[in-house]
Known about the structure:
The chain is of the alpha/beta class. The chain has helices at 3-13, 46-49, 58-68, 81-93, 107-122, 139-144, 148-151, 169-175, 199-211, 234-237, 280-295, 298-316, 340-348, 371-385, and strands at 25-29, 32-35, 40-43, 100-104, 126-130, 161-164, 180-185, 188-189, 195-196, 215-219, 243-246, 257-261, 321-327, 330-335, 351-352, 354-355, 360-363. It folds into 2 domains: 3-53 and 297-385, Alpha-Beta Complex (Aspartate Aminotransferase, domain 1); 59-295, 3-Layer(aba) Sandwich (Aspartate Aminotransferase, domain 2). Helix 4 crosses helix 11. Bound molecules: pyridoxal-5'-phosphate.
Amino acid sequence: MKKQDYQKLEDTYEMGTxxxxxxxxxxxxxxxxxDCEGRTYIDxxxxxxxxxxxxxxxxxxxxxxxxxxxxxxCYSIFYNDKRAxxxxxxxxxxxxxxxxxxxSNSGAESVEAAIKFARSTTGKxxxxxxxxxxxxxxxxxxxxxxxxxxQEPFAPLMPAVKHIPANNLEKLESAITExxxxxxxxxxxxxxxxxPLDKEFIxxxxxxxxxxxxxxxxxxxxxxxxxxxxMFACEHYSVEPDIMCCAKAxxxxxxxxATLCTEAITVPKKSHTTTFGGSPLACAASLATLKYIxxxxxxxxxxxxxxxxxxxxxxxxxxKIREIRAMGLMIGVELKEKSGPYMNLLAxxxxxALLAGPTVVRFLPPLVITxxxxxxxxxxxxxxxx
Length: 386
Ligand code: PLP
C-alpha cells in the first residue's frame, strides 16, 4: 500500500479526533523514526514524551517477547511475579514518602485514580487545579484540565473543581474551603507551554496543604522517568507529594499508568479496579525500561544534553524567539508568532517537533538522543526560523 492508501483508511475509519500530520510512520530506532516512503526523521516528539528509552528499544522488545510467551494477562486479584517486582521498583525510585502503587493504563487513568483516592481519603470533594494545567481528557481528568476548548463539548463535567493561576499563593489560599480534598498540579506544565512552576510557590503549596490536611497531587505523567534531568521533577523541587501520577515513559511505549501514594491514602476494596492494570506484559516492559534508564544513565544524559540543547538554541539568536523554557530534555521555545506552521517546515528538514499552545515549539526527544542529533535539530530549527 502507498502513503495515501494508509491515510485514506485512517481518515475513513477513525473518529477523526486527532489533527493529523502528513506523515505515515512505520518504524523507529533510538531517537529516529522512519516513514512508509523510507524517509528518516529525528523524533523530538517521542510519542509525546513516551519513548524516553528510544524507539523499538531492543531490551524492552526482548522483555516483551519473553513475557508474551509466558503470561500476557493476569487480573490483579491474582499475584504476579512481574507486577510484584515492578511495584517494589517504582516505590524505590519515587519520592521516599510514597509507598503504594495503583497500576492502570494511561496518564488520564492515573489522574482519575488520584482524584478518587483524594476524595476517598479525605471524604471531601473539591479539587483545586492550575490554569494552563493539563491532566488528560477522560471526564474526571478533563474537569481538572484547564483548556476550555477541550471541556466545552462535553459539559457538564465533574463539579467542585476550581482553577487558580499557577504560582499565585494568595489565590490558592482563598480558593481553599472546608471541602477541599486536593490541590493538583504539574511541576512543569507541559501541554500548557513548558512552564516550570516557581520553586517558592511549590514549597508554600506543600506547607499549606500539610497544614490544612489537603492532599497534594503532583502530575508527573510528562515529567517523569528522566525527562527533566531527574528521575522525577519532584526532585528539582525537593517536594514529596501525597500522590504522584505517572504514565507515558513508564513502560517504554507500552500503555501503563501508575498512581503512587503515601500510606495515609486509603481507598475501599473493589472501589477502584481496572482489567488491564498491572498486566504482566506491561510490567515486564516497565521493568526493562527502568533498568535501561539506570544502566544507560539516561537521567544524567537528559540533564546534560538538555543543557547542551538549550545552549545551542540560545545561540540561534533569532528575533522570532521570545523565550526558551526548559528542564532537562523537556524544552519549549516560545515564539513571537504562531508555532503551528513550523511543524511542517521542520518535518521537511527531517525533524519532528510538538506544539505546546499557539506560540510554543516543544522538543521532547527520546533521552537517547545524541549531541550530533541535537546539532541537526537546532540547525534545522535555525534554518526554518530564518
Ligand atoms: N497529565 C499530563 C501532565 C499529561 O501531559 C498528559 C498527556 O499528555 C496526561 C496527564 C494524560 O495522559 P494520557 O494521554 O496518557 O491519558
